[in-house]
Amino acid sequence: MTIQHNIYRASRWLAYKLPTKVKGLLASEIVPTKTLRTPHGPVRFYGFGRLPMSRIENAYIRQGAIFKWVDTFLPESVFWDIGANHGTISLYAAANPHIKVISVEPLASNFWLLNKNIFINRFTTITAYPIALSETNNFGKLGSSHNPTPGVAGSSFGRYHNDRNEYFTPVFEQGTVGFTGDSLVYSHGIAMPNYLKIDVDGTENHVLEGMTRVLQSSELKSIVLETSDDRGDHAECVAILETAGFGKRYNMPDTANWMFERCGV
User: Fold this and answer.
1) Helix, coil or strand: residue 70
2) Which superfamily, per CATH, for 32-261?
3) 144 vs 82, more confident
4) Given phi > 0 = left and psi -120 to 50 = alpha, else beta, which region is 87?
């Protein structure tokens, strides 16, 4: 057993023995932050738990290819981050004051942490929405395959199957509202995206089905989609994007993401 593990166990025991008021003070005030270096300055992340801290510590390993993609965004562009989690990609993009960011994250614990991260960085060009994107506008349930702690992944809206198209029994269900991407732009006035990232743990095809008009817009230049050849919805996602004019695609290195570019752009 390592010294670090012994310290962790001792800290948990000590925290258990503390008075309730002291526990509350520690939980709300003595929370570390982790800094992510970007070309436009440092971005701070609220370290509420081990999972969010780990995501930032390994950000350039896990998300480095996407960061390089974000670095190519033209000034005054609009970026939609669908499935933003606690905001690693969203806040990296928002560090550039010339990029407008729309973040979509339906899981309540992640949405809280995403907004906390926006707040502590005092970013003003990013707006987060606690909704799901789907093929229809509807009320429904978001099912989580894991304990819904901040930073967790593995949630699905309406259909409880994971990114391998396998059904799972949710350990937690949360009510939420689903919107189509088309309705956000053409009915609710959300800015048309120039760049789009979709990572929704298995329902990417349904998100794409709900934004066919957005996909056909020449304003949308490129898309990063979490998918792979062995996923059940991969062929459907590729077909939807090719029909919309995104005929060029690349497997991004060291990730489960593909980048799609509009032909002629």
Assistant:
1) helix
2) Vaccinia Virus protein VP39 (3.40.50.150)
3) 82
4) left
